[in-house]
Amino acid sequence: MNHVKATILVVEDEQYIARVLETLLTADGYRVISAQNGAMARSHAFSHMPDVVLLDLGLPDIDGIQLLRELREQINLPVIVVSARNMEQDKVAALDNGADDYITKPFSAPELLARIRAVLRRRTTVAEGPANVYTVGGFSIDFDKRVVTVDGQPVRLTQVEYRIVELIARQPGKVLTYSHIINHIWGPYADAENNRILRVNMSNIRRKIEKDRMAPQYILTEIGIGYRMAEKT
Ligand code: CA
Fold this sequence. Notes:
Elements: E1 7-11, H1 15-27, E2 31-35, H2 38-48, E3 52-56, H3 64-75, E4 79-83, H4 88-96, E5 101-104, H5 109-127, E6 133-136, E7 139-142, E8 147-150, E9 153-155, H6 159-169, E10 175-177, H7 178-186, H8 192-209, E11 219-222, E12 226-229
The structure holds calcium ion.
């Protein structure tokens, strides 16, 4: 039986890419709705209430970031931005405007499907209320007790280090931009100096939790963008 998993709205003006996405997602059991421009995307989003939106930022009739903001703020839809290669600034802007994740063209099919599953999973987890413990590999964080352990051994973190780890671990698999983390930890008056302080803290965190801090397994770096907590596989 072909079980329909979820509905995905594909917003993409390049027909070839739209067709590839439709074929791939349909084959994986998703129901797909397509929009070739921002106006169609808006109308489909409101009428179909998709579970996830795949959004190309370069649309003919509307600024992609503007559309992203509407979808997030007005209907609270999870959005994965599909962006061109090496557009770090676009990715940061997308994440800071509420995108749940991004994927870079040309993307691999397994990677795209994994990102979609992760977004759907996070949505379910949020609906069920926050988990009190998150574990991945040997790493574990207990949000009630505010304790981090690695391979069963408690890790001594400073207050700031713990808050950084907690913030990132609350949303496994989601990239948090440097500015998002800085605003969250140091507030709206943070400045460029906080960038450096964040890096120093992350370096210390990794020394404490990672086996090899040059090849981190738990808190991953998205170069030029931010950090992402590893997900359970
Ligand atoms: Ca485009």
